[in-house]
From TrEMBL:
Residues 21-28 are annotated as: G1. Coiled coil: none annotated. This is GTPase Era. HAMAP family: GTPase_Era. It comes from Neomicrococcus aestuarii. The lineage of its organism: Bacteria, Bacillati, Actinomycetota, Actinomycetes, Micrococcales. One of its GO terms (cellular component) is cytosol. InterPro entries: G_ERA_dom, GTP-bd, GTPase_Era-like, KH_dom-like_a/b, KH_dom_type_2, KH_sf_prok-type, P-loop_NTPase, Small_GTP-bd. Keywords: Cell membrane, Cytoplasm, GTP-binding, Membrane, Nucleotide-binding, Ribosome biogenesis, RNA-binding, rRNA-binding. Residues 132-135 are annotated as: G4. It comes from the Bacteria. Residues 13-189 form the Era-type G domain. The keyword DNA-binding does not apply. Belongs to the TRAFAC class TrmE-Era-EngA-EngB-Septin-like GTPase superfamily. Era GTPase family. CDD domains: Era, KH-II_Era.
Length: 316
């Protein structure tokens, strides 16, 4: 019988950090890189993340709970408003904030809008700036962006400014560990808040619907990404399968806002939807560690982004 007594070092630090930033700033990609596993889906479409996702970063002397949030922007729909409210709510509850600004894009009104919101946080919440995607710029451009970001902090987060400004690339791993270190130092002294090895508290059904949405986002354009919602209706273990080779039937609805969008998602003769299914199935099988049968249906939920009742039904 093992008889180990769990002990934590006296100076162990643990707490919550929220990543915020404009849509597409690289929050979810950085979250995944720091956790070391995909806990949040990513895409080059804005507003990919639609709920807060906790990714847990375990280190020898710290535990960081990263709260990845939807990109903040001026809302145009009820969904957009709900997402912004969600971020605001999250910000009030964390020990530090990581404000993500891409190295390859000039600071714009969208960033200032966010910086102003951050300026309204309790003064004890440290805010660090993360200059993301450094692999996309040369050293001179990076230096210029670091200066511009520092200046933004001095202007809008006076008198303290940013607690730190850290360049990072989630793509090539540059400084990912440094971000974890800087944030860990800002966490309160506390024992770990999650069991060792737990990387997220995302429910399985949610992860599955997200992997399907990620696959479906690939290759669609214009307003379609915003119009897409995915709901796992049922997961049923298939009967009569050998115990060492189980299979799960997963029934999923993909919602779009208009019949024309339904046609795009399905594709000619159903080819697009089949490709989405194939791609998502592989990822879901890896996640669950069993074979699955994925049954995808596309439905129209008219204007769901603006309709309180439909938003509720879709989980917003
Ligand atoms: N080259 C490069 N691309 C990156 C990096 N980080 C993210 N990206 C890309 O930037 C795009 C947006 O990344 P996400 O992580 O989904 O951005 P996000 O901030 O979570 O976006 P929302 O959830 O929509 O707010 C994707 O196409 C990523 O592959 C990086 O370090 N380098
Ligand atoms: Mg995201």
């Amino acid at each position: 019988m093992s008889n180990t007594i769990e002990t934590t070092p006296e100076n162990f630090r643990a707490g919550f950090t929220s990543f915020v930033g404009r849509p597409n700033a690289g929050k979810s990609t950085l979250t995944n890189a720091m956790v070391g596993q995909k806990v949040a889906i990513t895409s080059n479409k804005p507003q990919t993340t639609r709920h807060t996702i906790r990714g847990i970063v375990h280190r020898e002397d710290s535990q960081l709970i990263l709260v990845d949030t939807p990109g903040l922007h001026r809302p145009r729909t009820l969904l957009g408003q709900r997402l912004n409210d969600l971020v605001a709510e999250t910000l009030g509850e964390v020990d530090a904030v990581g404000f993500c600004l891409p190295a390859n894009e000039k600071i714009g009104p969208g960033d200032k809008f966010i910086a102003q919101k951050l300026g309204g946080l309790p003064p004890r919440t440290p805010i660090i700036a993360l200059v993301t995607k450094t692999d996309l710029v040369n050293p001179a451009q990076l230096a210029e962006q670091l200066l511009a970001v520092t200046k933004l902090g001095e202007e809008l987060l006076a008198p303290k400014g940013f607690a730190a400004v850290v360049p990072v690339s989630a793509k090539d791993g540059y400084q990912v560990e440094e971000v974890a270190k800087v944030l860990a130092q800002l966490m309160p002294v506390s024992p770990p808040l999650y069991p060792d090895g737990e990387l997220t508290d995302e429910p399985e059904m949610k992860m599955i619907s997200e992997l399907i949405r990620e696959a479906a986002l690939e290759g669609v354009r214009d307003e379609l990404p915003h119009s897409l919602a995915v709901v796992v209706e049922e997961m049923i273990p298939r009967e009569d399968r050998p115990a060492d080779n189980p299979m799960v039937d997963i029934h999923v609805n993909l919602y779009v806002e208009r019949p024309s969008q339904k046609a795009i998602v399905i594709g000619k003769g159903g080819t697009r939807l089949r490709d989405v299914g194939t791609k998502a199935r592989k990822e879901i099988e890896t996640l669950l560690g069993t074979k699955i049968y994925l049954d995808l249906h596309v439905k129209v939920a008219k204007e769901w982004q603006r309709d309180p009742k439909q938003l509720g039904r879709l989980g917003f």
